[in-house]
């Protein structure tokens, strides 16, 4: 049976269902225990039973204006009818607005309202449906005596409309509340107001959303050319890591894989002599599955500390400090620029950068490999990830042993691998020829170090790749040491997804349809 998410595991619930609120203060306390400390201003915005517009003007020192995003009359569904105490199908005015600072036009609140038309007089209805006027102002203009009943406070993950409105990252935490404006004992308007958890705070926060990456192959593990390693990879939109950081007396980390974030932050802190910070991993994914989570987590933690203290370091410098990129530079480059990436490896031999065949985890003081080629990956090509619920990919001592036991590789295989990369794979990316790209990827599974990585996999991985190809994928391959398998298509991909789920039926697993990310990690200061 296919199980729930392994690719991305938020440390807080992606949706916190609203419930009836007999005690607003109590609900806010519960909310705070779920998402973390709320500022006094956030608590006021969630708990006020007065005009939000007036409160925002006091908080910001700026006049507030309204931008109407959606305005239409529609029949009430059962949930809206229940909230407004009307019959399903009765007409309501549906409105979505942004409350903004007038001078800067900064979005402050995203508000969704439903108003039963039968309870409005003509002039009130005209103001509500034709003008960008705050509801509180309309109520005051028409001398309407009313009260506000707060029915819930909650949190949720940022949806696309919130990302557009506030410039927040996908699935960043949003705070929201529901309330009804009551007149003559009946609901006149129901409203849900939403704003980012990282707005209206009394301290600066740094937020970083990383990509993940596919590692298609290592290039040269013969050492015969005076160089070694080299890699090819693709940066992915999802899964990703969302990390928040703020200054603190001590250096602490919370959330999934917090130990990895803390180790990296400590290394950067020691190197630069920085103060403390509180790191919160809001969203992450499993380590050692072939998607580069360790590198992304480590660089994000180091980058966050640098941003908090205004001490700029390049992504490559951070990677070197935290001992990442000593074999392949693809993860570092994915964080820095995204896209389709090739790195040139390291010099090899006595007195050179490397003197042995070894993974990044066993390389001390080796710089991340330099990128020799980068190109946007076609956004029209879908990438289907399958992650079977089997043992983690090789890491630690086992990974070191594999490099020792199977290297150096036959020179002839490396020659063909370079041919597949430079003569078939790269031109097919530039020309967006999926058939040619797929043919190169399929052949790469059979040669070089990728042949070794595939050979050592659980039988379900071999079956996954075969079934996804038969279902119509242009190619299927193993990312790094796995067990993550990827397939690429320019079709809807549902048949490939179904084939992957069927192939994992006995062991369990997850399938995710994603795309390449042609930019690096996203950083914002709130």
Describe the sheet with the most strands.
Answer: 6 strands, antiparallel
Counting helices, strands and paired strands, the structural category is alpha+beta
The quaternary structure here is single chain
Could you list the spans in which at least 5 consecutive residues all have pLDDT below 50? 9-21
Could you tell me how far the N terminus lies from the C terminus, measured between alpha carbons in angstroms? 41 Å
Indicate the proportion of strand residues: 25-35%
CATH class of the largest domain: Alpha Beta
Number of domains: 2
Quote the average pLDDT.
Answer: 92
Strand order of the largest sheet: 1-2-3-6-5-4
SSE topology sketch:
Blueprint (H helix, E strand, L loop, with lengths): L23 H12 L4 H8 L4 H9 L3 E12 L2 H7 L6 E11 L5 E10 L5 H9 L4 H7 L5 E11 L2 H7 L6 E11 L2 E11 L9 E4 L2 E9 L6 E10 L5 E7 L2 E4 L3 H15 L3 E8 L9 H16 L6 H7 L8 H7 L3 E4 L2 E2 L23 E5 L6 E7 L8 H10 L4 H21 L2 H11 L3 H8 L3 H12 L4 E4 L6 E5 L4 H10 L5 E6 L7 E4 L1
Parallel strand pairs: 11-12
Antiparallel strand pairs: 1-2, 2-3, 3-6, 4-5, 5-6, 7-10, 7-20, 8-9, 9-13, 9-14, 10-12, 13-15, 16-18, 16-19, 17-18
Helix pairs in contact: 8-9, 13-14, 16-17
């Amino acid at each position: 049976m296919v199980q729930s998410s392994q690719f991305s595991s938020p440390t807080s619930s992606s949706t916190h269902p609203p419930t009836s609120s007999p005690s607003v203060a109590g609900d806010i306390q519960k909310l705070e225990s779920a998402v973390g400390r709320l500022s006094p201003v956030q608590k006021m915005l969630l708990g006020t039973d007065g005009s939000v517009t007036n409160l925002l003007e006091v908080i910001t020192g700026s006049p507030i204006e309204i931008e109407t995003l959606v305005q239409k009359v529609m029949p009430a569904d059962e949930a809206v009818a229940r909230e407004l105490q009307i019959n399903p199908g009765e007409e309501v005015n549906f409105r979505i607005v942004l409350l903004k600072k007038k001078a800067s036009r900064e979005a402050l609140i995203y508000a969704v309202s439903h108003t039963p038309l039968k309870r409005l007089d003509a002039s009130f209805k005209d103001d509500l449906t034709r003008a960008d006027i705050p509801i509180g102002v309309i109520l005051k203009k028409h001398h309407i005596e009313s009260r506000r009943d707060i029915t819930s406070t909650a949190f949720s993950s940022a949806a696309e409309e919130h990302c557009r409105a506030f410039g927040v990252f996908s699935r960043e935490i949003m705070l929201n509340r529901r309330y009804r404006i009551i007149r003559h004992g009946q609901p006149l308007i129901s409203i849900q107001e939403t704003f980012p958890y990282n707005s209206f705070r009394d301290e600066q926060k740094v937020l970083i959303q990383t990509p993940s990456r596919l590692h298609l192959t290592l290039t040269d593990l013969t050492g015969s050319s005076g160089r070694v390693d080299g890699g090819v990879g693709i940066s992915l939109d999802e899964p990703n890591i969302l990390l928040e950081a703020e200054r603190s007396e001590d250096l602490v980390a919370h959330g999934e894989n917090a130990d990895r974030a803390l180790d990296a932050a400590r290394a950067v802190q020691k190197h630069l002599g920085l103060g403390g910070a509180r790191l919160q991993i809001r969203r992450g994914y499993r380590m050692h599955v072939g998607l580069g989570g360790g590198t992304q987590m480590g660089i994000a933690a180091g980058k966050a500390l640098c941003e908090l203290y205004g001490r700029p370091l390049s992504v490559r410098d951070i990677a070197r400090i935290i001992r990442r990129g000593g074999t392949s530079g693809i993860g570092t480059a994915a964080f820095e620029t995204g896209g389709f990436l090739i790195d040139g490896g390291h010099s090899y031999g006595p007195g050179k950068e490397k003197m042995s065949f070894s993974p990044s985890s066993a390389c001390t003081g080796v710089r991340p490999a330099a990128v020799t080629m980068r190109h946007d990956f076609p956004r029209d090509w879908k990438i289907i990830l399958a992650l079977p619920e089997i043992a983690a990919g090789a890491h630690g001592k086992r990974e070191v042993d594999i490099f020792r036991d199977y290297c150096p590789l036959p020179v002839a295989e490396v020659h063909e691998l370079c041919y597949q990369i430079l003569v078939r794979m790269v031109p097919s990316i530039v020309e967006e020829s999926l058939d040619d790209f797929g043919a190169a990827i399929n052949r790469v599974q059979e040669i070089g170090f990728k042949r070794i990585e595939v050979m050592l996999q659980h039988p379900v991985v071999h079956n996954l790749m075969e079934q996804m190809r038969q279902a119509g994928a242009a190619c299927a391959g193993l990312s790094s040491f796995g067990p993550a398998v990827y397939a690429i298509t320019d079709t809807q991909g549902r048949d490939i997804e179904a084939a992957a789920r069927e192939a994992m039926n006995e062991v369990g697993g997850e399938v995710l349809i994603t795309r390449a990310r042609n930019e690096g990690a996203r950083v914002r200061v709130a």
